[in-house]
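step: validate -> pass
step: tokenize input -> pass
step: predict -> running
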Amino acid sequence: MIVVPYSFTFIKQVQQHFEKEEAMDRPPFTERVLMHRDFMSRLVDQIVPFLFYVFIMAFFLSIFFLRKMLISLRSLREETKMMRDGDLNVRLDVLTEDELGDVTKAFNDMALALKTKTQELVLKDMYTRARCSDMPYTMSHTCLVMGRT
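step: predict -> pass
step: emit ->
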């Protein structure tokens, strides 16, 4: 955007300064010092606004990317709360292919694994209860006590 024209301006000024210095045979020391001071002051006058612009752009870009990352983290936090409350059907959309995307994929895998393991435990519990209900009282009592441990 604006960075390219500024960089060309800097390059052009440096080239002009060298050409001006080469055009003179061997300027006296004081004249050379004055030329360098003039050149440096002009260069600094142009670099300071350029650097200010670069820092402002870097600040706004960092805010933009930080917001995007925070949105992903907030959704991860909300879905984790839903899972904590018992909803094992939660899934997150993978928005990025970076570390945060990897965490999101791992969260989805964990949610699926928890749901599968929970269903397996429910089936085992139902099976144990069904087997124990068919037994006589003394054996079913032992079966229930063993099923709780």
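step: describe -> The chain has two domains: 1-87, 90-149.
step: cleanup -> pass
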